[in-house]
Amino acid sequence: MAKHTGPVCKLCRREGTKLFLKGDRCHSPKCALDRHPYPPGVHGKSTLRRKASDYSMHLREKQKVKRMYFLMERQFKKYYEMADKKKGVTGTNLLEFLERRLDNIVFKLNFAPSRPSARQLVNHGHFSVNGRLVNIPSYLVKEGDIIEVKEPSRKSSIFKVAMEIAKQNGTSAEWLDVDPDKFKGTVKRMPSREEMPLDIQENLIVEFYSK
């Protein structure tokens, strides 16, 4: 599967918002968007003066969310198609599918500093779901699922630091429960729209794909 291998800070600058793809760096003065608050490239500053068309607004919102969850176009469109077929509001369904990804859950539990980092840790087989190894970042969790750091991995300094952070900060999602002492988290329920990212205008994404 294709993947993004370039500088991720350029993605934040292109979308004009922090996508939190670099962990602690995004919260520090080194953040590229804070230092250069305009799109990358020699004409970056001039693009800020242009009036965005409707198509541009739809495209940029789709690109922003796709990059926020660190997905490629084919996979992101697949989630949209799944959301469109499911009963309910398509935009909300789309966000729910994205939030239920295992790599996103690992990130939300503060077991990893960013979604790209969480994806790598899942790929390397450091996590189990309900006692079974799952090394697929796109695995969709369900209500009641228990996500644990595998026993051999708990000795790693990466997870010792992560658990200390989880003890201090808990989880950023009310629909999740974290127990750092036991290296595990639980999906208490599916998230409501108010508990999913509020800076996303999912209706623009639906309009983009509906054309």
Mind explaining what this structure looks like?
By secondary structure, the protein is α+β, with helices and mostly antiparallel strands. The protein folds into two domains: 9-45 and 52-98 and 198-210, Ribosomal Protein S4 Delta 41, Chain A, domain 1 (Orthogonal Bundle), CATH 1.10.1050.10; 101-187, RNA-binding S4 domain (Structural Genomics Hypothetical 15.5 Kd Protein In mrcA-pckA Intergenic Region, Chain A). Helix content is 43%, strand content 8%. The chain contains ten helices and five strands; from the N terminus they run H-H-H-H-H-H-H-H-E-E-E-H-E-E-H. It has helices at 9-15, 32-35, 44-47, 54-68, 73-85, 90-99, 102-108, 115-123, 157-169, 202-210, and strands at 127-129, 132-133, 146-149, 176-179, 184-187. Strands 2-1-3-5-4 form a five-stranded antiparallel sheet, with helices on one face. Helix 4 (54-68) crosses helix 10 (202-210), helix 5 packs across helix 6 and helix 6 (90-99) crosses helix 10. It starts with 8 loop residues before the first helix and ends with a helix. The mean pLDDT is 85.
